[in-house]
Amino acid sequence: MATPSIAIIGAGPSGLALARLLECRGISYILYERDASAAVFDRTGGTLDIHASTGQRAIAEGGLLAEFEKYARYDASTFRVWDRHGTQYIQHERGSDFPEIDRGDLRRIYLDAIPEGRFAGERG
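The line above is the sequence of FAD-binding domain-containing protein; the predicted structure tokens follow.
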């Protein structure tokens, strides 16, 4: 592998998305991550709303939409409040353009698509 001229600092959602897009285009890069556990699947960090024009676009362009669909929750953007008698007072829906996914699931999807050797140091 040629010496990469692009360094990505951080294996969070944005860093991993960028790495996947560069990988798909055959552009050399190296990914640096301070936390050694960043290369391992975990469930820390809560959920993320993935917008159609940004996050979902990067996932699709990275060829990972089918894998994303396995974990995306399109119903998670609905918020309702009832009283103890079952009377509904509030309902707010953002629609299906903002599905949610657990941060750990999104991380694993991207990590599985990034080949060994792209991380500085040992992966895992």
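Note on the example: Strands lie at 7-9, 30-32, 47-49, 78-82, 88-93, 100-102. The chain has a mean pLDDT of 84.
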